[in-house]
Design a protein that fits this description.
Elements: H1 2-28, E1 35-38, E2 41-57, E3 62-67, E4 72-76, E5 87-96
Antiparallel strand pairs: 1-2, 2-3, 2-5, 3-4
Length: 101
């Protein structure tokens, strides 16, 4: 009985590890085009900000970013911690019904 419990435990741990690997692979997959279709709908990503973090204030949950164009702007950190010199990009996600209408 003890040997059976040991093998059952190891099998469950392997299945859990395999499922975690599968989930991580799903998150790591990247969309490499700015326009794509999924389930009959068209979607686009548009880059709205690209720059480097110059300051992070956890007290008010904001970061100051120096954009690639040289401007400085303040945006919400959305509860995520940032270090100075982090490179960030912000995208707008748009979904369209029939053929981009």
């Amino acid at each position: 009985l003890l040997i059976w419990a040991f093998f059952a435990y190891n099998k469950n741990r392997k299945e859990d590890a395999d499922s975690r690997i599968w989930i991580r692979q799903q998150w790591e997959e990247k969309i490499t085009t700015e326009k794509f279709e999924f389930c009959g709908r068209a979607y686009t990503f548009q880059e709205t900000l690209s720059g480097t973090v110059i300051s992070y204030n956890p007290n008010n949950d904001t970061i100051w970013v120096k954009t690639d164009a040289g401007d400085e702007t303040q945006i919400s950190a959305h509860g995520l911690p940032f270090r100075e010199s982090h490179r960030i990009k912000k995208y707008e996600f748009n979904g369209y019904h029939d053929h981009h209408s």
